[in-house]
Amino acid sequence: MKITLRQLQVFVAIATQGHASRAADTIGMTQSAASMALADLERQLGSQLFNRAGRQLLGQAVEVLDRVAAIEAAARGDTIGFDLHLGYSVTIGNHLIPHIIARLKQRFPKAQLRLSRLNTEHVFEQVEHYKIDLGFVEGPGDSRMVRRIPWKTDQLVIFCAPDHPLAQLTITPEHLSAAEWIMREPGSGTREVMAHALHTSDITPNIAFELEQPEAIRRCVRAGLGIGCLSELELEEAFRAGTLIPLATPFLDMKRNLDVIIHRNKALTGGVSALLEAADIRLPPSV
Q1: I need a labelling partner for 101 at 20 to 30 A (CA). Which of 3, 40, 140, 223 fits?
Q2: Most distant CA pair in the chain: distance in Å?
Q3: DSSP state of 266
Q4: What single string gives the DSSP state of each residue in 124-187?
Q5: Which among 47, 114, 64, 50 has a CA at the least distance from the CA of 87?
Q6: How far, in Å, CA of 97 to CA of 88, rounded?
Q7: Helix H or strand E segment including 91
Q8: What is the pTM of this model?
Q9: Which residues touch 203 (CB under 8 Å, ≥6 apart)?
Q10: E-only strand ranges, the chain
């Protein structure tokens, strides 16, 4: 059996891109050449690669290609040529990712970075299917194929406009049940943490709007359309300016973890290690 790296590259590209022509473009081949390489690989393996059994080989193929890239980088004596695709949820992307990228590019100016801002649910999906190398998430999520690495903690805050009827009150669960809410969309880390906290206190929110962007939520709350809940990272400037005010809710636990996620079969290449170092992430011994 003589499996080539090019055949594995074609297999991984088609599996992650979902279409032969797009896959061929990403690896600099014609569609016919890519299809031929895949057919040759399937003949050598004696198996279709896009059935359930074949999909289980994807992780091994990705790991082989990652390790070959690491060998090439080591042979050059550097890691300047690494190429990483990062996915991150909205709050992390707005406030934390730019500093990490700046540190990474300062040390490795030739590094290639591709960036995708998604909600937490979609970051998990992209990591699980090898579409991104690393994910930064801000809420619950679970997959047996994904490893979570602790990073930071964050605090969600319920807030309103200064002239909202709740602004001058001592807030109770009943107030929150009666209020109209401007919420993040289902699948976001913020929404999941907040929904769990409200459910634990038997609070059923009256949802007026669901929006994907924190800025849109802040504007709607400032306009008096309801109350909101976002990370304190998203609210610091508005609180300092007095355009929004926090509502004290000591009966709710809305702390959350910010984590990095990586596929369990993903090799810790020089590029991945450099990114983790730029984010001040220390890997536990089991990783």
Answers
A1: 140
A2: 75
A3: -
A4: HHHHHTTSSSEEEE-S----TTEEEEEEEEEEEEEEE-TTSTTTTS---HHHHHHSEEEEEPTT
A5: 114
A6: 8
A7: helix 90-95
A8: 0.76
A9: 173, 176, 177
A10: 83-88, 112-117, 134-137, 146-160, 180-184, 206-211, 227-231, 245-246, 255-263
Q: What is the pLDDT along the chain (287 residues), one digit of tens a residue?
A: 578 878 777 777 777 776 777 777 777 777 777 777 777 777 777 677 766 656 667 777 777 777 777 676 666 665 556 788 999 999 999 999 999 999 999 988 888 899 999 988 899 999 988 889 999 998 777 778 899 999 999 999 999 999 999 999 999 999 999 999 999 999 898 999 999 999 999 999 999 999 999 999 999 999 999 999 999 999 999 999 999 999 999 999 999 999 999 988 887 777 888 899 999 987 765 55
Per-residue pLDDT at 231: 96
Of 231, 267, 276, nearest to 92 (Cα)? 231
Q: Contact 155/193 with Cβ under 8 angstroms?
A: no
Helix 232-241 / helix 214-222 crossing angle, nearest 10 deg: 40
Count the helices and strands in the chain (H runs, E runs).
13, 9
Q: What is the C-alpha separation between 4 and 2, in angstroms, rounded? A: 6
With CA atoms as reference, report the closest residue to 114 among 84, 153, 73.
Answer: 84
- DSSP, collapsed to helix, strand or coil, labels residue 45 as helix
Site of tokens 């290690």 = 273
List the structure tokens of 245. Answer: 């005010």
Q: What gap in Å lies between CA 5 and CA 241, rounded to an integer?
A: 57
Count the helix, strand and coil residues of the chain and give each as a percent rounded to the nearest 5. Answer: 45, 20, 35
